Amino acid sequence: MNNDAGILNPKLSSPGIMVYTLAMAKLSKIAKMVKMTKMSKMVKMVKMVKMSKTLVPAILLIGIVILLSACGSPIDDSGDPGTIGTITSVDIAENGGDRLATILVEGTPEENAGLTSDKASVGLTKDTVLVNGEDKKYLEAEDLQLLTVGTNIEIVFTGPVAESYPVQGGAKVIRLR
């Protein structure tokens, strides 16, 4: 018997058994490495898919929220003044409801010619827009310190006023002058 036959048939010789065993061990290692590489690639792909299933919607949601907050409606400070004058009285509301204060505004008949009235009792709420130069914002309790006796303002009413003297109505906009 020659040694070549032992390589092909491990039962024929002990050197053949050793070569066969080594060859099989190497092939087994190679097969495991290939499987592990494929498995690790598959595991990575599965993790990426899982991550993208949660990450993509989260990124989209954040983007939508940012877009919607950027598209907020601007503060409407439009409207023609109904009364122009000086604050002569400030009555700050104590109940903490929607009404923050009531002010009395008195102007001259000449200054208010063609306007609603030269004297008005005006309710101020959190929906009232305060315009101070280029700045405009919804009125807050802290802003009442700007509305003191002697301050010159323009009032844009929210709608119709009670036709009394002074007229009574709610302020849509207060413009500091």
**Helix content class:** 25-40%
- Straight-line distance between termini: 118 Å
Main sheet record: 5 strands, mixed, barrel
β-strand amount: 25-35%
**Overall morphology:** rod-shaped
Biggest sheet, spatial arrangement of strands: 1-2-3-7-6
Structural class: alpha+beta
By DSSP (H or I, 4+ residues per run), the number of helices equals 2
Per CATH, what is the topology of the largest domain? OB fold (Dihydrolipoamide Acetyltransferase, E2P)
Beta strand count: 7
Uncertain runs: 3-7
What integer is the average pLDDT?
81
Q: Tell me the Rg in angstroms.
A: 42 Å
Order of helical and strand elements: HHEEEEEEE
Q: How many domain units?
A: 2
Question: For this structure, what is the CATH class of the largest domain?
Answer: Mainly Beta
CATH architecture field of the largest domain: Beta Barrel
Topology:
Blueprint: H1 3-8, H2 14-70, E1 83-92, E2 99-106, E3 119-125, E4 129-132, E5 135-138, E6 152-157, E7 167-176
Parallel strand pairs: 3-7, 4-7
Antiparallel strand pairs: 1-2, 1-6, 2-3, 4-5, 6-7
How would you describe the overall organization of this protein?
- The chain has a five-stranded mixed barrel.
- It contains two helices and seven strands; from the N terminus they run ααβββββββ.
- A hairpin with a 6-residue loop joins β1 and β2.
- The protein is an alpha+beta fold and about 180 residues long.
